[in-house]
Predict the 3D structure of the following.
Amino acid sequence: MAEPSSIMPAIFFGHGSPMNALERNRHTEAWAEIGRSIERPRAVLAISAHWYLDATRATAMEKPPTIHDFGGFPPALHALDYPAPGDPALAEELGALLAPEPVGLDRDWGLDHGTWSVLVHVFPKADVPVVQLSIDARQPPSALFALARKLEPLRATGVLIAGFGNVVHNLGAMQRRPDAPPYGWATSFNAAVRGFLETGATEALIDYQRLGRAAQLAVPTPEHYLPLLYVLAQQRPGEAARILTDGIELGSISMLSVGYGLEDAP
């Protein structure tokens, strides 16, 4: 596979339910269109909400396993395999880029559903190498944003930097009906974040907790919001946010997806 000749985009995907891996809907179609429209990357650097621990680590195996980190879903979902190769050399490179932050080389994790439930649509042949980078739960949003800024040079080397989470993610309030209307706080917080993205209000996105009660309900725990900051940190001067899909599912799950560096894509 030839390395891309242009700057790769950076994309945040609102991954939603693991069932999106099997379904075809307006969100999965938007993800699939990204795979068809961008230049093929040499690798994906994935920051998933589901690898949130007290350390910064990178998957460093040749063949990362497909992790089914959920329960109560149909056998077809548990049987789904996404056999994308890894990229140990890229994992090693992260250590130099993120120094002095230590980056552990992990050979036990793999690809969790936050990542593969989306990539199965973006790159359905599973032929693009994927490395996952963990989110350090000890660090505040501002520190994680600063750390993520160090990843930006990878875009010029053919690496697609992708975050996988949800801007609004409250499982406790989730309504298990496909026609469930969104809560008012979910709609207002999602709209505020989208507005900040479209106007380039970076500090407001980092300090999202200032949105008060709506933020507390929309982001009861930070791990699903934080991948957005890793992608926001990749924005280059002159790059505008492009909204790829949006909407609130199950009352309290945002599907908002946004990319940078997609100006020339259809």
In short: The radius of gyration is 17 Å.
